[in-house]
């Protein structure tokens, strides 16, 4: 199925024009997607990648994916140079939660 090109606003930053929009998979099963601008999509993807690396590439469960996304939505601004600190905080928060 060919999806229509997503339009804004960005779910994270509210941008609604002048940028490219992408559909982001929050979770795959069930399939939950949101529209993000290119910049926000790059940041959440970077965050997911770093989390996966710190977990020795163990795939995130659906609840964990949802948790990461929800956590990121509450973050105000994630500067690129801050990402390592942010990821460590996120991992700590994840460890405090039980997902089973
Ligand atoms: Zn955005």
List the helices and strands and how they pair.
Elements: E1 21-27, E2 32-37, H1 38-54, H2 62-74, H3 83-96
Antiparallel strand pairs: 1-2
Helix pairs in contact: 1-3
The structure holds zinc ion.
Number of helices: 3
Share of residues in strands: 5-15%
Major β-sheet annotation: 2 strands, antiparallel
Q: Structural class of the secondary structure composition?
A: alpha+beta
Radius of gyration: 14 Å
Q: What strand order characterises the main sheet?
A: 1-2
Helix coverage percent? 40-55%
Unreliable stretches (pLDDT < 50, length at least 5) are none
Oligomeric state of this protein? single chain
Number of domains: 1
What report would you give on this structure?
With 100 residues, the chain is an alpha+beta fold. The protein has one domain. 44% of the residues lie in helices and 13% in strands. Strand 1 (21-27) and strand 2 form a beta hairpin. The mean pLDDT is 84. Zinc ion is lined by residues 10, 12-13, 15, 36-37, 39-40.
Précis, in short:
This protein is α+β, with helices and mostly antiparallel strands. The chain contains 3 helices and 2 strands. It has a two-stranded antiparallel sheet.
List keywords for this structure.
single chain; alpha+beta; 3 helices; binds zinc ion
